[in-house]
Amino acid sequence: MTFKYTAYNWQGRKVTGVLDTDSEEDAYERLRREDLIPQRLKLVRPRRSLVQIAPSLFKPRDKELVDFSRQLSSLLDAGIPLHQSIIVLRDESRGRGFKEALSQVVNDVESGLQFSEACAKQTSVFPTFYIRLLRVAEATGGINQTLRRLADSVEKRSDTRRNVKKAVTYPAISMLVAFVAGFILVTYALPSLIGLLAEFGGEMPLMTRMLIGFSDFAQDYGAFVFVFAALAGVGAWLYARTEKGVVVKDRILVRLPVIGKVVMNSNMFTLTSALASLIDAGVPPVEALRLSGEGLSSSVLRRSLVIVTRETSEGKSLGKAFRDQEHFPRLLSQGIATGEATGNLTGILHGLANYYEQETDRSVSNATDMIQPTVILLVAGAVGFVAVAVISGIYSTLGAIE
User: Fold this and answer.
1) Which helix (H) or strand (E) holds 8?
2) How far apart are CA 213 and CA 103, in angstroms?
3) 129 and 177, same domain (yes or no)
4) Which of 157, 267, 283, 368 would disulfide-bridge 278, Cβ 3.0–4.6 Å?
């Protein structure tokens, strides 16, 4: 704690300064030992950095954690002490959020905390399973190998999440552009053209009348529809952030024909890779299950894994506990049961992790291959409908003029 003080010496001269002490009483005691008479003591609160004020704007990226883990492992292999290695990596870090977190880790290590305990305080940077493996590594003395294993695990998870995001980004942007273009066309461009066609009279084709009706509706009620859609979207977003809403959303996602496979395979990869790493490091299976569940993105699978964890702790075999939960694929339970029977559980889990990693990439690729043409067809269909409606209206008008 830092205190700013005002005091007087025995000659009556005013003295000001700053003290770093553990408490206010210690500050007063130090002033008395220096033959000073305290007049005023004020606690100086540390100035918060921009990263501390708005941490979400400087959230560290997975790549920073991967590079830090690998570089720290290399420095330790070279014989550089842990504390000095963290300082070197902190000074070389370019990300403000990650640099701030490492500064806090350095301070905590200097104050006597273990490395894993210091990292555990930086929850925005180090995942729970990362901390648990560090604790095991500190107890067994294999921190170098553990850091390399953690780097590989975090990198694979990051690649999987990035591929999933790519699968939905392009269709979302395409639909947004199509919606904006259609809104501008129907609201501003078509009314003047339709008004011109209506002046010449004649019987309009069905498609043209449908387009005119839609354009009139958009002009009269477009603002209300837009406001209602915006309110509905905000309401759905807020509901999806509630505990019940998250469960409903995740249930829908898991059951969707194309997206459901992406969600399931990516979660299974996360689960099997985390389980394999934790059990390899000597973490008991029940504790490994609990920690692995924290990395799952689907609340439906997290709830099922909680049941698996409870039943396993009560004595049921891991393979049977997974088999009794309908949300987990049969391949997972069969593979784990085989690993338990042969005594090669971690080997089976590593194999399943590789399989689900490949399946995630394949399902993402299939989803992209299916969604992109679908979006293109929808946009082309809408544009084609407008074009046919306008052209047929023009021909009908020319016939009426003749």
Assistant:
1) strand 2-8
2) 64
3) no
4) 283
